[in-house]
Structures are given as C-alpha cells and as structure tokens.
Design a protein that fits this description.
- By secondary structure, the protein is an alpha/beta fold.
- 47% of the residues lie in helices and 18% in strands.
- Helix 2 packs antiparallel against helix 10 and helix 12 packs across helix 13.
C-alpha cells in the first residue's frame, strides 16, 4: 500500500514538474521592421515592449528586429499568416496585397495635414479596413505613422513635375504608387526597401521617395544630392500581430497588448511630427539641396490616378462601386 502511494505521489510530482515550466514560461513576441534601429518604427516598438513587460510583470517579452533582419515587409506579413513570426510594424506598402482596401491610403494628396489623416485612420473608415485583416490571419493593433513622403534624387533639383521626367525612382510594391510616378513622367521601379540603399549607391535607380525620418535614418544623403519637399503621399504604418499568436494569449494579456499598442502609436506619431520639424534642416546640413515645390501642379499632374478604373476597382477589392464609395467617403472625412 505504501509502495503504491509512493508511486502515485512520484507520478503526480512528475506531472507537476513537466507541466509547470510550460505554464510559467515567458512569452516571447518577435517584432520585425524594415527600418534602421534609430528610425521611429523601432523606437516605438521598443517603447511598446517596455510597456508590455511592465504591465505583465515580465511575463511577455517583445524582441525587436530592425533593418529587415526577418525579411522584407511582405515576407514578415506572410510570416504572421503562417505563424512563424509574431509581430511586425510595417508601412502600408505590401498590405494592399492582403487587404485591397488599404490601397485607399496610397492615393496621392489624399490628406492635407495630420489632423485629416487621423480623422480617417482613427475613425470609421480606418476601423472598417483594419477589421478586414483578421480574415487573412493577421490582426491590426493600430494605425501608426510613416509620414508625408518626399522625393530625393541624385540628378536634379525638383521644382516642377516636369523635372521628374525620365528619372528612375524606386517605389513600394503597389500599383497606385507606380501609376502616380508614371503620371509625373518618372520611371518607377518597385523594390523591397532593404535593397534600396545599394540600388541608389550603384545608380540602379536615380531616386526614391520616403518620409524624412526614413531618409535621414537610412543615410540616403550619402547617395542622394537633392531633396524635394513634395509631401505627395501620406503613408500610415500599422502594428500587426499574427492571429495565431493572438488566440494563444489570455484575455488579460490581449488587453495589455492592445492598450500598449495604442500608447506606443501616440508616442510614435509624436516622434514622426518631431522628425518632420527637425530633419529637413539635418538633411541640408548633411549636404542635400532642399527645394519646396508648389504642390498644386503636382496634385494636378496625378489627378487622373483618382479616375483610373483599375485603381478604383482595386480599392474596392474588385468592386468598382465599393471602391468609389470608399474614396468619396475618405475625401469627405479628410476635409
């Protein structure tokens, strides 16, 4: 009897020891970005990680991997779908391949200022589009900010749309970006961001377009002479988590992560604004020639993008009427 009891006790102890480590193991969330460590994406992701670690008492650790260490933006989003990566903070560039309605935010000169951006992103339109992510295996934790995009190149000071004629410019992998640059007379070349610096250095492309925070942190001033403050696109960013990962988290941890993502979003938007206020002068100090073109001729040159049937249909996820309705709603909300 004593031997039987000892066996039961030892077996129970074995089960406890076997199960306990798994139950109390730290949760690791890897978060990848495509930008350099000093970029606002990574500063925001680190800030997010600190909040999560504090609020969970160290039960969850967010590990940030910058500079495309975990692949291109598209690679990382696909990793979320497969469950091989937990999180990413990405531009909207590749997102139209997963949720077509995201292409709405790629329309040129859609927003006149940050306030109009936030009204759309944080309002009904942005929420409805973000909710679609779950259907493709990923979950939005909030619209962050890439910022207003400006053009750099190694050939000419850009003051008019005509100055863009024939310039080979790298763009994100999105048809709206491609059509916009073609409308300006440039020759767009889709390319992953991780390949861009080398392409500019080797003159594979003459130009690129990005927010100031990206231009400066990526040190494009080393391979680009001219900076034109065109502000032709406003690019949101989005913090994403794998739906597979999300479903493994307790409701308490889900709430902590969602709340932390909102706090980090506001922090990141503040960093983006500060970058726009300071980095133009920093780029000039590094030797770039900065111009401030009149935006009206540029907006006029790309106006046809809004009427392009393929763009309208793409924004509607294959439904032209839905696409036009979404565009009209965004224009009205952005006023």
């Amino acid at each position: 009897m004593r031997k039987k009891l000892l066996t039961v006790v030892l077996f129970s102890l074995f089960v406890v020891l076997a199960v306990a480590p798994a139950s109390y193991a730290k949760i690791i969330l890897k978060c990848g970005t495509s930008t350099q460590p000093t970029h606002i994406y990574n500063l925001a992701a680190e800030h997010f990680g600190k909040i999560v670690a504090e609020k969970t008492g160290g039960e969850i650790e967010v590990q940030v991997f910058p500079a495309s260490q975990l692949g291109s933006e598209r690679d990382m989003v696909e990793g979320l779908q497969l469950g091989s990566l937990e999180m990413t903070l990405t531009s909207t560039g590749p997102m139209g391949n997963f949720v077509p309605q995201v292409k709405l935010f790629n329309l040129p000169f859609l927003f006149k200022d940050r306030e109009s951006c936030y009204r759309v992103l944080d309002g009904e339109i942005g929420t409805q589009i973000a909710d679609r992510f779950v259907k493709v295996g990923i979950r939005s934790l909030g619209w962050y900010e890439n910022g207003f995009r400006n053009i750099t190149n190694s050939k000419v000071a850009v003051n008019r749309p005509e100055d863009m004629k024939g310039i080979k410019i790298r763009v994100m992998e999105d048809d709206v970006f491609i059509l916009t640059m073609k409308s300006l007379g440039a020759s767009p070349l889709p390319m992953a961001f991780g390949e861009l610096y080398t392409a500019l250095e080797q003159k594979t492309v003459d130009a690129q377009e990005n927010p100031l925070a990206v231009i400066h942190s990526s040190r494009f001033f080393e391979v680009q002479k001219y900076l034109a403050m065109t502000g032709h696109f406003y690019s949101p960013a989005v913090m994403l988590i794998s739906e597979m990962t999300w479903q493994t988290l307790s409701p308490e941890h889900q709430k902590i992560i969602a709340d932390a993502a909102t706090q980090a979003r506001d922090y990141e938007r503040g960093l983006s604004l500060k970058a726009d206020q300071e980095l133009e002068a920093a780029c000039a100090k590094e030797g770039m020639t900065v111009t401030h073109p009149d935006k009206a001729p540029f907006a006029k040159a790309v106006a046809a993008v809004y009427k392009n049937p393929s763009v309208i249909k793409a924004i509607g996820g294959g439904d032209a009427k839905a696409g036009q309705k979404l565009i009209d709603a965004a224009l009205a909300a952005a006023k």
